[in-house]
Design brief:
Chain B has 485 residues and is an alpha/beta fold. Chain B contains 15 helices and eleven strands. The chains are: A alpha+beta (491), B alpha/beta (485), C mainly alpha (95). The complex binds magnesium ion and zinc ion.
Chain lengths: 491, 485, 95
Amino acid sequence: MSKVKSEYLINRKDNQYEVVIGLEVHAQVTSESKLFSTSSTKFGAEPNTQVSLVDAAFPGMLPVINEFCVKQAIKTGIGLNAKINNRSVFDRKNYFYADLPQGYQISQFKDPIVGEGKVILDMPEGQKEIGIERLHLEQDAGKSIHDLDPQSTYVDLNRSGVALMEIVSKPDLRSPDEVSAYIKKLRSIMRYLGTCDGNMQEGSLRADVNVSVRAKGSKDLGTRCEIKNVNSIKFMQMAIDYEANRQVDLIEEGKSIDQETRLFDTRKNETRSMRSKEDAHDYRYFPDPDLLPLEVSNEFINKLKSEIPELPDDKKKRFIKDFKVSPYEANILVSDIDTAKYFEEVVTKMGKNKDIKLAVNWITGELFAVLNNKNLEISQSPISSKNLAILVNLIKNGTISGKIAKTVFELMMDGDKDPQKIVEEKGLKQQSDPKALEALIDKIINDNRQKAIEYKQGKEKLFGFFVGQAMKASGGKANPQLINEILKKKL
Amino acid sequence: MSDITKQSLSELVKNIKEKKLSSKEVTKAFIDRSEKSKELNAYISEDYSSALEKAKKFDEKPNLDLKLPGIPMAVKDLFCTKNIRTTAGSKILNNFVPTYESTVTQNIWNEGAILLGKLNCDEFAMGSSNETSFFGNVQNPIDKNLVPGGSSGGSASAVAGQLTPITIGTDTGGSIRQPASFTGIVGLKPTYGSCSRYGIVAFASSLDQAGPMAQNVKDCALLQEIISTYDSKDSTSVDFKRNEYSKDLTKNIKGKKIGIPKEYRVDGMPKEIEELWQKGIQYAKDCGAEIIDITLPHTSYALPAYYIVAPAEASSNLARYDGVKYGFRAQGENLIDMYEKTRSEGFGAEVQRRIMIGTYVLSSGYYDAYYLKAQRVRKLIKNDFDEVYKKVDAILTPSTPSSAFKIGEKKDDPVSMYLNDIFTVPVNLAGLPGISIPAGHDLKGYPLGLQIIGKAFDEQNILNIAYAMEEKIGFKNKINDWWIK
Amino acid sequence: MSIDLKTIKHISKLSRISVDDQKAEKLAGDLNSIFKFIEKLNELNTDKVKPLTSVAETTLKLRHDEVKSKDIRNEIIKNSPQDNEDYFVVPKVIE
Ligand SMILES: [Mg+2]
Ligand SMILES: [Zn+2]
């Protein structure tokens, strides 16, 4: 494969700049109840109906930690090849905001639960390692709604206290494409682990993006700006592009860059300063005296290690080795856990005499197209893995042609019908009886005597015409290979 | 019986169990005396009619197996009580009615006690004289215009003035023991983690602890046995085997080693306090205890460390009072304006002062120099005690460096006010149990207390020592009911 | 060390307590005398001492992941100074 250059550089007159990006991803932990309270985490509930006295910070209420959330964070750490810390500490991050009922967020500052790790990105020019600085557990805030009333802000605390994992990368990312690949990889790993559903529309995955620029080849880091709370990959890429160019322009004009927090305006596609946040930037972190240090033993960690499923990188290796798929195909198949699961089910259900290559084509071709069109996840696929396996087998054993298979596929979508039954009911079975086909072809040659002569005189293109006529006459059911053989013999 | 309110808890329980008194009679007696005692300003909220209702109900179907059968009692207004206004002595919670009950008070009601009302205290328990309450200062029954101490001043005044047979307070730096000492009653601050903090308005989470206040050691032991339970709703609650403190109470303390720390002999301490201490030492000896001179070298650093740690935690704990979810809200043009006005008008001067101190010591650039330093000093103080407890079973000190002072006397001098807690604060920093028992009077006839400090979770031992000494001391409070016309 | 008015104003901003000049003067005086008293800690060299954050002699207990709280919106919202039955309502936030 030829190397595609994905290098992202900003050019101005004689200068070339590269962009340095670090991400603080906030991933909502998949759990039934909140990090420090027993209220539900379900998405989409009526406002303030999933709020306990603890979440609303009533006087005298105290946090009690959810064991499952701790396990989820550790599992994610293992998935990021990271060091799990036996002792971590919860701190209070103090600031005032309408949707922060305690007046502080319980987070981990000096001693996070997970330390350094790494993830591997598959970029067009090869693999790239991105360092993970840390992962820590913290509470989510509530939601402030500014547009329901001209004078007031409305506050919904349903999300208040939901567990988040903040995953901080090293400043190893160099382009919007790498950021996209990184987010997708994190999402993929966490979905494999079941630790975060990765649903960006519902806000389960959001990121603060730290952007700085520097002259290409320089080793120093420039002044960075943090773009807060971006909740789609597309917006992250647009924000980075805008922000990097803004910073380069400032440098080119000989101006300095202020280290500040910025907001990405999705309507104007630009970032702007959030000055109001600046004066309250002193968070006065200190260990939360309502909680003790969190201690986890090596046995506890090892038990979780033993529960870790096969992760995308390993699965990819196995697919290539066992199923002989290409690295490119393997990437597509493993990137989403549900796709990988579907694919493996198809493989299993195809039985002994299977054509994996054909199955991959059908999944990544026809099936993906349908899902895309209908905006469905593969877990919601209108065609089950079992029936897709049957369909691929029908092609493989010559019962139907690839062309007929497309018709069958269309029909299958109505209620996940068994393709075998469709073939029988509609009489779509391939005609492979040589005698019948010979008779059919004799008739066609007879009806097109002139064209047969032209073909014999050397107009070879007409062979296709006869194939087409034969297929048409058979209602598309004729075995194309046989048609070819017979025609060659008869013409 | 006309002298119901003079009876100790143990006597009342006995009389109710033997059906010599009904809960209603007892409840009514304490309500009547409370009504006549408004001048003490011990109550913030009264709940008399429903108390009588509950007493009547109790009498109809008395469960005499309970430890507090139909016993009325008022509690410090720092404990959240379901459907009863809970203010923490602050304007900012003036109209706050919890829909939940603190674990400690729930334990008490579960044993048959009946709530009379909520007792005055320093605002958010910040004070040593009960002068910082939004609901006005509390009078000490000992003498007019005398502070009862703080922050559980209403509680101390109510027990000493016999408005309630027993009560509970909270102690962050001495808030049970100092007012107990100022009013001539017994007050116990249990080991940190012994009583649940769930449902108690927080002041400084790593120091706060609820505890009993009573007229005598035995009543105190009984109440401690009721309020001390493991609670999974408080992550700092400790699951240890708890004694039946009142049942296991003994005056036999022969051979107990009691330490006398030389550092508690502070500069400027009145002669009467030194004499009281010497008397206490003699009493302990008379009880058969062995007296050992000890050293707690970092004692003088406890108060400065406390005035970093406690305000730091308080500045964060009190951030939730922002006018959004409950309590007082001042009108503001925008959110920040609303916050600033609400907190400026809703909190009193001392609370604001401590929030400022706490914010400052945690702020960037000062954290290491103040907060972290204080935590390290706290470790040294704990080490001092750990070291000493290899040699002794308990420590005996005065409870306070002086007797009760006049209302207004120290109000404008925060540091001299803070010095009140010089003997009690180290105990909180180290998380140990400490009990104050009345041990004598100064020349003005004001009570003076002695403090017995124990090992962690060794409440039984200090209760026993206090019990034995109490008998030898034979303290009688000099109260002439001056406030009853 | 001395705490000046600028510092007082800064802390008051952080703690969201409005402070006018007169109050700031008073606070500066009080805080300076308190910090003078606190400075006593500087006599101690604590470089080798591990800070003590909690005296609770226990380890952090973990609870099971179970939803126990129900919808108590009415209870939660009824204490708030201003609401609209569904939400807590605060004066407009200016970003
Ligand atoms: Mg961030
Ligand atoms: Zn975060």
